[in-house]
Amino acid sequence: MAVVSSLLRRFNSPTIPSLCSLTSSSYHSFSTQCFTQRTASLSLPTEPPPVPKKIPFSVTTHGVTRQDPYRWMRNTNDAAFLDHLHRENSYAQAFMSDTETLRRNLISEMKTRIPAEIVTPPERWGQWLYRQYIPRGKEYPLLSRRLEEKAETNWLSVLDWNQIAEQFGYVHVGVCRVSPDHNYLAYTVDPKGNEHGINLFYTVVDEHQRPHRVVVTNVESDGGGDTVVFSESDSSFCVDITSTKDGKFVTINSNSRTSSEVYIVNAEKPLAGLRRARERVPGVQCFLEHHNGFFYILTNAHTDAASEWSGEGYYLSRCLVEEVESSEWQVVFCPDDDVVIQDMDMFNDYLVLFFSKNGSPMLCSIDMPMKANTKHMEDLNPWYFPLPADSCSVAPGSNHDFQSSVYRVVLSSPVIPDTIIDYDVSRRSFSVVHQEGRVIDDLDTSTPWYSADHSTDNNDRTSEGMPEWEELSDAYVCERQEVSSHDGVKVPLTILYSREAWKKSESPGMLIGYGAYGEALDKSWCTNRLSMLDRGWVIAFADVRGGGGGDFSWHKSGTGSLKLNSIQDFIYCANYLMDKGYVHRHHLAAIGYSAGALLPAAAMNMHPSLFQAAILKVPFVDVLNTLSDSNLPLTLLDHEEFGNPNIQTEFQSILGYSPYDNIRRDVCFPSMLVTASVGVWEGAKWVAKIRESTCHDCSRTVILKTNMSGGHFGEGGRYAQCEETAFDYAFLIKVMAYHNNR
């Protein structure tokens, strides 16, 4: 599959005024009464929070001098810093000591919803069937396989993640690939959570953890050694490797956040040299696949051949293999104005396109080979995969087999458990093969949500003829609203609540956002959320600018000097939830992960009383200092996303919203749970400065919890995730002083 995505993520107008000066009468202004006075029953530790040392440090940039007495925390090997983190963990445990029973109950609820064993439906690749299987009582899956003609009991274990976890204590398995001849398995393991015949291509990172070099080795050769086939000298670019679906070519992709350059290697002759598809151009990306002597390319390049197209996104082009270095490629088609192409997947008899139409996800197949220079996609007689009418996410399955006529996808939404659908492209029909928590073979096929075989005509693009997806959950409501932001732009807001437990204007709630790298906010099904929904909580997702949206301008309008749009969108969504009575005015929490933690952190600086509580997980909050340090991983890449502080206008923009640089003094801030692992100093510095600067009493309800061994992805096992989530939820329930007698 052509990977149309950004690279590694941050755990990763000329002058913008400080956020603290941007006030508006439209924002809610709650009582300035101290949080601990508003919730007198809150139990606090008898000992005060840890106080880290301060070492004077100042830095002057573009005539602006900033003080940073906690800069020393950047040295994560400092014994004093490690001791401070242990003391913070002890304080966090003391703060949460009265929630032990609640946490046990939450964990029990969550684990009860997890099947004892989980088996994915087998997926065919050549003569083999592959599946993942989580045995009873285990945290992680096993990858197993069997020959198609063998008995069902003859499954062979290929890779056991549990054994890796036992060896290292923590594990994050990244890439896991089976060789085309099915004789080898290659996988990458991150044992510390740092994100750091047959020819094997792999990438090597530099001292800044940037993948910059591609190496090939023959795994069947005793003395062949490693050969460097590509090196990227531009520190703002990273390299990755993919192969065309038919296995005939390896593509080496050198990408920045907004630009890409593709080099092509003949898979049978890996040392015969590289061919560059096209010279890199700022802002231009391309991703290619191969079919029967042609390269098919998704690109946003504006060329003479695509002169009639004025869009910003991708269109489909092609060229003969021997003409890939030509300055002009044939245009197959350009999408209509309301269509945004996102990705493609190539097979022997068809091409699958992932795209959105008016903001809604869609997929279609187009028969191969296809003709070029068609005006519209409709001219290629696409089959639009039927999808549920409810808003949902659509993710591809493995789909390794180039010859297969069946395409597998996973559908999910906040109220639709993960559902695996097989679309038979040759018959233009589909079948539901698996749904989380249900055994398909045991279901009555007359029930409205299930159909063993729906044949559809070409005009059946959405839910007509599909299962009644909304019947999956009569207990929960999922609404999609549009919120007018500060400049009138409509921001999508997804709101989830229980029909039975929710109470208008009385229920507590949490608002979740991300808004970076053009990534869509994850709103897929999660059984752990049911514990909060059943207690009357509202869970809302704000798709603010900077994240994924219907078109590419949605991302751009929340980057660089326009980053303030993301923060304002988040604030206006918070106000909407309270104004419309979805949540109680004093019972709204904010949650941000990684780069998304910038949203609630900056919003709290602007309006400290807007939220009653916040959870910042591995937060990116020391934005200006991090972007100013070129020695840190991802910094140069992130200049395209957030701005380059070496440029004065961009420095002023970042300084205006950087959470660490805009903490108000002597005001009451919300209660906060800050979790840290990778880049631990950002969360630690933030908590230290919050405690130093804000209300003394309120700062006692700010806790820092550091996973001393886990990675950026948190606890990876399914049961460990329950414990981590239960801790988060118990914190919110405690500081909201909201308890349900359930």
Describe this structure in words.
With 742 residues, the protein is of the alpha+beta class. The protein has three domains: 116-190, no CATH class; 191-439, 7 Propeller (Methylamine Dehydrogenase, Chain H), CATH 2.130.10.120; 473-720, 3-Layer(aba) Sandwich (Rossmann fold), CATH 3.40.50. Helices cover 19% and strands 29% of the residues. It is built from 14 helices and 37 strands. An eight-stranded mixed sheet has the order 30-31-33-32-34-35-36-37, sandwiched between helices. Helix 3 (100-113) crosses helix 14 (718-736). The model is unreliable at 3-32, 439-465, 468-472 and 738-742 (pLDDT under 50). Residues 49-195, 200-433 form the Peptidase S9A N-terminal domain. InterPro entries: AB_hydrolase_fold, Pept_S9A_N, Peptidase_S9_cat, Peptidase_S9A, Serine_Peptidase_S9A.
